[in-house]
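Exercise 7.
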Amino acid sequence: MSSSNGSMGFVMDTSAWMEYFRKSSIGHRVAEYVDSEETLITSTLVIAEMKRRYEQQGRSDFDEHISFIRDVSVVEPIVEEPIAILAGEIRQREAISGTSLIDCILIAMARIGGHRVITKDTQFKVFHEAVVLEE
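Solution. The predicted structure, written as tokens, is:
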């Protein structure tokens, strides 16, 4: 899962995409990563989380937003075994309270691929692979 141009890529967290589409102040900072020349990686698990949130919020723009995500990022299907194993280890040994298994999967994807995770979620602060965007 290394980026195609040999440079660092960015694993996009659900919160980063949600802020991007809200066009919030954090979303404008996420746009800098989206507009960069670096490879963006979006897990299908992030898409699942986004679908749930869009359903909860009664939003009708999910298909449009997912189409955009497909256009600008590499969509990684669920998870490969080495990532799953590492995510379990991270969840048990490194994660703090409030860090979901999906969060740990994103960190594992970043760690194995030599990437960074773009997020606004503060529980990621314990991971050196994370870029936590704050207001």
